[in-house]
Specification:
mainly alpha, 434 Repressor (Amino-terminal Domain), three-stranded antiparallel β-sheet
Length: 401
Amino acid sequence: MERKSMGQFIAALRRVSGMTQKQLAEKLNVSDKAVSRWERDECAPDLTLIPVIAEIFNITSDELLRGERNNNEEVMGNGASKTEKQVKHIINSALLSFKIRSIISLGVALLGIVAAMICNFGFLRAYIGFFCGMIFVIASVACQLIFGMKAFFVVNGDEFDRKTVVEYKLSIIKGLEITFSAIAAVFVILLPLIIEPWDTYMGISVGSWFAEGAIFVVISGVLSFFVCLLLNIKLANDYNIEEVETIAEKKRIITSALKKLAILVGVTVLLQFAFNIAASFDIFAETIKFESTEEFKKFMETPMDWDGNTYALDVYENETSQWYIFDREGNEIDTYYEWNESVSSVSYDWEKGDPLYIVYTHSAMLRQSHIIESVNTLFVIAYVVEILIVILIGTKRFRKI
């Protein structure tokens, strides 16, 4: 072979091997423009790439640098098998590139949370925050799909043995599972912005967002875990990585775990539902009861603030605060002034004939609200514990296979 410059020599080797500039660039994890510049002798490959290029074309580094073969034989393309070092370099480069791009995709999704926080806390527009965040989530999913498809076919062809190709593709799929699970978590974090507000022109508090978002993230994580597990079992079956008996046993473990989880969560949901139904009747609120109408009127007409502290009024003729007392038939029997601001609501019990006045104060209702919130928090913790127990038991059984 006539002696050429290194760039001309690379071009000749590439053509004989039947490769395009883009194909060579993908194997070296560089751009096709870089390969074009090498072949035009505008610049030279990085020194770390010299051994890799030499191995791709089945020549020595010295031959590549000199621009000719030592034995003056024509270069044989497609016939030389790749060395272990070259294959390892190509796979590692492709995986590193995919990981970096996956981080970029996840970063785009996280920007959606930042945008949502700005809209919610800065402008009190929770709905707008949700849709702004969704724009970034959708962009993140699109980017990851493109990056995944591109990385999936980098290691392919007759030059790679089946085991190498399968291991590489499974690594890419595992990376996709992790990234999409993280993006799904970002999506569910945004859900409280569109579920919680009762007004489109309102934002939600940090506490409400965090509490509901944490619940959604746990649910999303469990679903992602089982979906990825089932997908991995299917891939193991498709690529014949595991024995049929092993795959069947894993399926049985997952089915059993899902049944147990459904039973545990179902029972807890029923208990929580029953608790909240009971709480709606104010059974956890302390009440003040009066059997005498005069005692009830005296209490209602005592000036008190929301916390139950008494104070003096300058003027008592406040007709706007006058209320009426009715009997069972709806006839007016008495009136009183509601100067007691600590009262939240009043109900009547006529079972004994004479009315029993039941008073609920604001402080009592607030204490009840704290009790309900605390118990519901315990229910959420119970859900998380149940899920973790089922996952740990399933994982332990998996390891025994």
